[in-house]
Amino acid sequence: MEKYPAKKLHQAKLPGWVEAIIAQTVVYAPQARQGRFVYDRLSSAAELRLDHDVTILPPKKYLLPQRETLLRFTRAGGFEPAAAPEPFVLFGLHPYDVAAIAQMDRYYGQDNPDTQYLARRRQATIVACDVQNASDNVFAGCMGTATARGARLGNAPAASSQSPPPDPVDLLLTLVGDTYVIEAFSPRGTGLLALAGELEDADPVALGRREQVWQDADKLLRRHRLACRPEELPALMEKSFDSPLWQEMSDTCFSCGSCVTVCPSCFCFDVQDDADWNLEGGTRARRWDGCMLCDFALVAGGHNFRKQRDQRYRHRFFRKASYLPARCGFVGCVGCGRCILACTAKIANPVEVYNRLLEDQA
Amino acid sequence: MTRVPQVPSSPYLPESATIVAKRPLTATEMLFEVRLDSGRALGHMPGQFVELTLPGVGEAPISVSSWRLPQAQAPSPASFELAVRKAGRVTAALHAAEPGRKIGIRGPFGTHFPVDGVMKGRDVVFVAGGIGLAPLRSAIQYVLHNRGDYGQVTVLYGAKSPAERLFVEELAAWAARADAKFMETVDRGDAGWNGNVGVITKLIPLAGIDPTKAIVAACGPPIMYKFVVVSLYAAGVGNENIIVSLERRMKCGIGKCGHCQINGLYACTDGPVFKYSDLVGVPEAM
């Protein structure tokens, strides 16, 4: 991977650069809405909130839309793929959200590559931004996703040779004092940065302060403290299938799926056909779905393979901490903390669950 | 690992196909003969499934129920058969569809019965419970087509009642063969039934299974497996010689949508055919 020299941009000059990007391409970025933060189309630099603590929904919605047309069909026969997506920039992603995108890239890219996802993914330019304000529930530090440096997936087995995941970060912004240190990791990144004009190289002092930001992030993004390393979770889960915890915790579960909806590492979907009103054709679309919903494992004929809430609740944690690690080489949790806030019954805190299981084993 | 067709660029894009013929097997099951419009053969192995699209209604996973149709029967050697139970929206609409109707096919997907692998040279025992005969028929046809590659061939079939027996003419043909043993039973008989009455597990000790030589391929409703496996153990058959086909809610067919997960396994790519020894540590399998 080519190394591009890190640059400096005073934060007063950031809006000018962002306006130049908006003028050229579609940009999605974190913005304030009614006391919370959301990802939305950016129409002016003034709306950009790089200081956001956490968004309600992660940026997965731009790579796997809530509803995505897969194809069109006509009654006479014949199927046409959906139109190719337009290029876009995701601007201001926290490192843990970028880590989740790398996870989706590996999951969708390996074995039978999902060319629909990959086509949309290739159109995305990812501009990450180190966390400036920690949210109340973030524990990315515990999951190794507090900062965006190095290979996110560690010692995971190599991805399929058919579809190597693109480097998830095209540009990384880090605020040190009143200046952004900006490092590009790809030609797309340098191309975007060029819109800011000539920039000074980041000097060793700035780079040193950036290193401090990273070290602080690793320490501070631990509002909840996981009592083990993420690599130890699969072994823990192996001993935990019959734990009474699943029944206890899920006793108040609404099966509402809020945890799934807001999770950057959840990406299951359902597929449905919709006929046009004139019945001459229609579309097939996929929509977000989740294993926590009661019908997820229901088959025609009425049998439900995960009928009880404790089975579904347990499955979701096993997928994240046992099945995805075995299949894809990553723990399906980036410590964003969104589920903790979103859960209707306040039973979603993964740190609480894993720590309880650890205690029970001790 | 599974074989995914090379044809379309998107794994979600079906190929155009046509319903060539249909005939009822029972009150709730119908046999469809389907042909890909391109004329290409499906290229499936027994145990694999396709995702069948009825445009506007939806897509459903259906196991392929035939191996290779004899030339005399099929209008085109590329036809394949799907035995479909009317169970939900897509299958109900399919039952109402007429020959000539345009549908879509994706696949074949999934693992297959190892008729071209470990089953060769062994005694083969098929244990089919109810609708489980539909995917097993493909394997049975394959084995009988290549009879010389196997030792003793035994087919055990259990249906709920005589009226619910599938493929009755073929059952008679299997029963008439000198080079295969066919035994069947029904859970409850009727006035005209002279055969065995009782659950399928009653046939297992009567089948003369040599556990040192046999490989058993079983397919049936979820409830059946536990009991069949216990009977097979009693007959001396070990986990490594039991092959099962597990159905789940398979939607995408390629291991992405997540619906068919059995613990950490995907029924659509790690299955639907599994060695029972691979399911021993998988609590959600049975």
Outline the secondary-structure elements:
The complex is a heterodimer of chains A (362) and B (286).
Chain A lengths: L6 E4 L3 H11 L1 E8 L2 E6 L25 E8 L4 E3 L6 E6 L1 H15 L5 H8 L1 E6 L10 H4 L27 E6 L2 E6 L2 H7 L10 H17 L12 H6 L6 H6 L7 H5 L6 E7 L5 E8 L20 H20 L9 H5 L7 H12 L1
Parallel strand pairs in A: 2-6, 6-7, 7-8
Antiparallel strand pairs in A: 1-9, 2-3, 4-5, 4-11, 8-9, 10-11
Chain B lengths: L14 E10 L4 E8 L12 E6 L3 E6 L16 E6 L3 H8 L5 E8 L13 E7 L3 H13 L7 E7 L8 H9 L4 E6 L9 E2 L16 E6 L2 H13 L7 E4 L15 E2 L2 E2 L6 E3 L11
What does this structure look like?
The complex is a heterodimer of chains A (362) and B (286). Chain A has 362 residues and is an alpha/beta fold. Chain A has twelve helices and eleven strands. Chain A has helices spanning 14-24, 95-109, 115-122, 140-143, 187-193, 204-220, 233-238, 245-250, 258-262, 309-328, 338-342, 350-361, and strands at 7-10, 26-33, 36-41, 67-74, 79-81, 88-93, 124-129, 171-176, 179-184, 269-275, 281-288. The longest helix of chain A is centred in the last third of the chain and has 20 residues, at 309-328. Chain B is of the alpha/beta class. Chain B has helices at residues 89-96, 133-145, 168-176, 222-234, and strands at residues 15-24, 29-36, 49-54, 58-63, 80-85, 102-109, 123-129, 153-159, 181-186, 196-197, 214-219, 242-245, 261-262, 265-266, 273-275. Chain B has a seven-stranded mixed β-sheet with strand order 10-9-8-7-11-12-15, with helices on both faces. Chain B has a six-stranded antiparallel β-sheet with strand order 4-3-6-1-2-5. In chain B, strands 13-14 form a two-stranded antiparallel ribbon. Chain B is globular, with a radius of gyration of 18 Å. Mean pLDDT of chain B is 93; it is low at 1-8. The chains are: A alpha/beta (362), B alpha/beta (286).
